[in-house]
Amino acid sequence: SPLSRLPSPVSPLPSPLSPPPPVRKRIVHFIHLDGDGGGPYTVVKHITFYSHQYDLHILHGGSGRIAKACDTLGIPHTRLETERMADAIASAPVIIGLLSGLRPDLIVLHGQWAGALGGICARLAGVRHVLYIAHWPAFYTDWDFLRVLRNWVTEWVSCLCATCIVAICPSNHQAYLQMYPWSAKKFRVLSNSIDLAEQTSKTEILALREEHGWESDKIHIVSVGRLSDQKKVDWLVQAWAQCAAVHDRAQLWIIGDGEERAALEQLTKNLQLEGTCRFLGNQPRGAVFIAASDIVVFTSVYESFGNVSLEAMLAGKPIIANDVAGIDSTVQDGVQGFLVPPGDITTLAARIQELVENPDLRRQLGENGTRRVTQFLTPVVLPKFMEVISEQLAAAYK
């Protein structure tokens, strides 16, 4: 065609009078530790969701999933020495210098120690708008006076410096309001989220079961999380001793690592459970073990939210958890699973046995979970966070 031989049109040069392209607003995120916990998981969700819309820079301690996500997405990030409180305080001049140079329109702080340290540094660097996402609601469960005082002061400073605070579950919100009622007007309640893309394929499930020798005629129960005092896996091991005495076709798998592992393994030996309770340490994707299991048990004594419950519901698995703040906002007792009184070993064992013996109940609770989890999907939750961010950015330009 003659038209096909015509030269391609050349884009005109921009007029000197044409307005410059809009400058993207700059947001800095700060979290004190980049590891495998819920905080880094939340940060990665955020930056992945709106990295195309804002000029982002991430400050973090450690080097884990956040650093990897930033490298993949091309987001600049800076590692700081903030894993311990003393190191975090010593890093304050560096943080002030970074913020003074970056001049962000908004800084988003994620939990301790970033809340207090980041809030003070942001104010000293002239950052006027500070969004604090609170991850630490458990002051009333602490039993050490100095720890209680430290947490109270840290969160008081975090709330004081913030122009807006996000509590990620209703019980978390209530805990903060009881301690700092003057901050009520700053709060929003927005949950964590989970992606449909995180669902585990049947191929992955079969591969995992084959790798670890999971027999198809057994009922497999999993616990996924850090082996720390907070998670109270010793309660699960004690309850398992009662279950294993009754059900020889059930197996408990404990996924995770931490300072409590040696004591837990010794407890397992003392209770003669080595044949039915296995420790697999840290695994790249704990969610695959959840999807491959028949029952999920989550014995944490407190959580700011509890992402394990979302992973269980996304996989369609029934969950047994402690009836504590942060978990009661996702799991409804008797609907997606069971909530048991913290420390009630007998009830915990009875609930595990009930699910081991009743496949129809396991299936029903799992189906209820897949319906429930739709309320927490990323396309539902993160636009609400975007609204809060937009409000803060709009206020910054008034």
Q: What are the SSEs and their pairings?
A:
Elements: E1 26-31, H1 38-50, E2 55-61, H2 65-73, E3 77-80, H3 85-90, H4 92-102, E4 106-110, H5 114-124, E5 130-134, H6 145-161, E6 164-167, H7 170-179, E7 187-189, H8 202-212, E8 219-224, H9 233-244, E9 250-255, H10 261-270, E10 277-281, H11 286-292, E11 295-298, H12 307-314, E12 319-322, E13 337-340, H13 345-357, H14 359-372, H15 378-396
Parallel strand pairs: 1-2, 1-4, 2-3, 4-5, 5-6, 6-7, 8-9, 8-11, 9-10, 11-12, 12-13
Structure in words:
The protein has 398 residues and is of the alpha/beta class. Helix content is 43%, strand content 16%. It is built from 15 helices and 13 strands. The model is unreliable at 1-11 (pLDDT under 50).
How large is the radius of gyration?
Answer: 24 Å
The average pLDDT score comes to: 89
Strand order of the largest sheet: 3-2-1-4-5-6-7
> What is the succession of H and E elements?
EHEHEHHEHEHEHEHEHEHEHEHEEHHH
Tally of alpha and pi helices? 15
**Largest pleated sheet:** 7 strands, parallel
Broad shape? globular
| Beta content | 15-25%
Contiguous low-pLDDT stretches (5 residues minimum) are: 1-11
Quote the distance from N terminus to C terminus: 56 Å
Number of strands: 13
Question: Which secondary-structure class do the elements indicate?
Answer: alpha/beta
Q: What fraction, in percent, of the residue positions are helical?
A: 40-55%
